[in-house]
Design brief:
The structure holds two protein chains of two kinds. Chain A is an alpha+beta fold. Chain A contains eight helices and four strands, in the order αααααβααβββα. In chain B, strand 2, helix 7 and strand 3 form a beta-alpha-beta unit. Chain B is α/β, with parallel strands linked by helices. Bound molecules: flavin mononucleotide (FMN), iron/sulfur cluster and FE2/S2 (inorganic) cluster (FES).
Chain lengths: 164, 438
């Protein structure tokens, strides 16, 4: 099915439209915001999303695809409802993050990067999240969780499992 | 010497994010003074006198940067706040954005007024969703008070300010990559010259500063450039935020006068090594600055010149502390993984060099190193740094060489004995790398 913005996405898109010059260059600046809004609505960037974003920003699908693949936060496939992003950069690993990550994957029964069979959790390793003073840092969807330990992560996962 | 809070003043008070609280503590007084009592030339003078240097890593004097812009040149001109904060170990900008967003906005308006710029963008890394929301809210408040928009404070000066959200790419912290990203493109750094002051966003004159640099502007104008300069040393004016993390008793963000002795900061303020262990090394300014050994820290002051004289850099002021138990080969390998992941791939020496470094460090770490590996790394380095478009090449080569030179015996242990072969853990790591690397 072809993708298009729902009403609230369209409102958000118009809000972003006011930030840039009213010319083709300004419209091209909307590629990344449009990809974000699409991902918030659709969960990931599908081929249909790419075509749609190209259309509404006056750019080519190939350009939009090039942008999509450059930025790691744009997902090219569906992930679990709770997207667990473990920072394992220098400070977080000093504080044990690499072990927490490996063991959490084991407990979830997945390999790094995979999604649990119930579609609830995906676990990935990410680079420094800019919260090293309260490391290890875990980002779940948009939210940061700090001072993580294995048991804290386990508690969080149990909470998410219970959530609707 | 204790902390010296200029930017961090009141930052931990509940509600300091709101414009009312910020104003109750003197916020927007600097803006009023700048716009009602000073000429743009006088503002520029104060910034020059203040000795404020860019806090984004390179330390370029702000006053000089501002003077590159021709205020009366016709057509749009842009101001960009670099809030891409991605240098591993750095976590100061996020704190300012979430806890005291108005100090950034106030500084940006003063800068825009001084340089005659009409539109500003705050480029926030995609992971910083909460800071992004905080900045949006603060911008809305500033508009409603008449500090942004048309005819600011009745002076006839117009300035619009917007947030922008990145999407996960360390390289977009480079100001020219950032501008390409803002233009809706892949975040590729541009060849310089031309510099942003001539050819910036949409090819127009543009000034880019780090979050912390803008945050220092309003206090400077409110209290005078001389006052600010004297908080630091003659060459490194003012205060600087230092984020300390890793094996330290009290990690966090601290604001210190530039020139504060390292020893006082580390021992008295941050509490020294965690759990009474011995210090093995530190990284002074983010992962791209060379590692320093305890004997190199003797007599070191926290300012640009002193850290440079020790063979490293102040960088972003992001100190990472390693205690005696730290496996430095693992640290180097993990840091290199970051660079291999983040190289934008435009320049062959950087793109291939990153992969080679990562592969070689990987085989050393996995117990399969060869005797000649360290020499190969030294040799490769000569071909990378000088042959790249942006500073990223140097940013990984310099710290990597410091690791292998200063901890040579540890690397040789790995090569000769493969002594830490924890196969199970490593296999799992290898797999995760394959996935993250794909
Ligand atoms: C690879 C690379 C990454 C960078 N990342 C950042 C960053 O995250 N934040 C930042 O403010 N500056 C970063 N910079 C420096 C910017 O290019 C630029 O110098 C800075 O934003 C200017 O601000 P300042 O004058 O206030 O320091 C980076 C530079 C390079 C080469
Ligand atoms: S040096 Fe590296 S990061 Fe910089 S432009 Fe070249 S390939 Fe990209
Ligand atoms: S190293 Fe993990 S948040 Fe910086």
């Amino acid at each position: 099915m072809a993708f298009s913005f729902n009403e609230s996405s369209m409102n958000e898109f118009h809000k972003w439209g006011k930030k840039f010059p009213e010319n083709p260059e300004g419209r091209r600046s909307l590629v990344i915001p449009a990809l974000w809004i699409s991902q918030w609505q659709n969960g990931y960037i599908s081929k249909d999303v790419v075509n749609y974003v190209a259309e509404i920003t006056g750019t080519e699908p190939l350009h939009v695809w090039g942008v999509t693949t450059f930025y790691t936060m744009f997902k090219r496939e569906k992930t679990g409802k709770f997207f667990l992003q473990f920072c394992t950069n220098i400070t977080c690993t000093l504080m044990g993050a690499d072990q927490i990550f490996v063991n959490t994957c084991k407990k979830l029964g997945i390999k790094p990067g995979e999604t649990t069979s119930d579609g609830k959790f995906t676990a990935v390793e990410v680079e420094c999240l800019g919260a090293c003073g309260s490391s290890p840092t875990l980002q779940v969807n948009d939210k940061y969780y700090t001072h993580m330990t294995e048991s804290e992560v386990e508690k969080l996962i149990a909470e998410f499992r219970g959530a609707k | 010497m204790a902390e010296n809070k200029v930017i961090l003043d009141h930052i931990d008070d509940a509600g300091e994010q709101a414009i009312e609280a910020y104003q109750a503590h003197g916020g927007y007084k600097g803006l009023e003074k700048a716009m009602k009592q000073m000429t743009p030339a006088q503002i520029l003078d104060e910034i020059k006198i203040s000795n404020l240097r860019g806090r984004g890593g390179a330390g370029f004097p702000a006053g000089i940067k501002w003077s590159f812009i021709k205020r009366d040149a016709p057509g749009p001109k842009y101001l960009i706040c670099n809030a891409d904060e991605g240098e591993p170990g750095t976590f100061k900008d996020r704190k300012i954005m979430t806890s005291k967003p108005h100090i950034i906005i106030e500084g940006m308006i003063i800068a825009a007024y001084c340089m005659g710029l009409d539109t500003g963008y705050i480029y926030i890394r995609g992971e910083f969703f909460e800071p992004y929301q905080a900045m949006d809210k603060a911008i809305e408040e500033a508009y409603s008070k008449g500090f942004l928009g048309k005819n600011i404070l009745g002076t006839g000066f117009n300035f619009d300010l917007h947030t922008y959200l990145g999407a996960g790419a360390y390289i977009c912290g480079d100001e020219t990559a950032l501008m390409n990203s803002l233009e809706g493109k892949r975040g590729y750094p541009r060849l310089k010259p031309p510099f942003p002051a001539q050819f910036g966003l949409y090819g127009r004159p543009t000034t880019v500063h780090n979050v912390e640099t803008f945050a220092a502007v309003a206090p400077i104008i409110a209290n005078g450039g001389k006052w600010y300069s004297e908080l630091g040393t003659p060459k490194s004016g003012g205060t600087k935020l230092f984020g300390i993390s890793g094996h330290v008793e009290r990690p966090g963000v601290y604001e210190l006068s530039l020139g504060t002795p390292w020893k006082e900061f580390f021992e008295d303020i941050a509490g020294g090594v965690r759990g009474g262990k011995k210090l093995k090394a530190i990284i002074p300014g983010g992962s791209s600055t060379p590692v320093l050994l305890p004997h190199e820290l003797e007599g070191m002051l926290l300012d640009y010149e002193s850290i440079q004289s020790k063979g490293s850099m102040l960088g972003t002021g992001a100190v990472i502390v390693f205690d005696e138990t730290t496996d430095m080969v693992k640290v180097a390998y993990r840091a290199m993984k970051f660079y291999a992941h983040e190289s934008c791939g435009q320049c062959t020496p950087c793109r291939e060099g990153c992969d080679w470094y990562y592969d070689i460090l990987g085989r050393i770490y996995h117990g399969e190193g060869r005797i000649e590996d360290l020499d190969t790394l030294e040799d490769l380095a000569k071909y990378i740094g000088p042959n790249t478009i942006c500073a990223f090449g140097d940013a990984f080569v310099t710290p990597m060489l410091a690791f292998i030179r200063k901890f040579r015996s540890e690397f040789m242990d790995y090569i000769e004995k493969g002594k830490y072969g924890l196969q199970a853990v490593l296999d799992a790591e290898k797999k995760s790398e394959e996935i993250n690397h794909a």
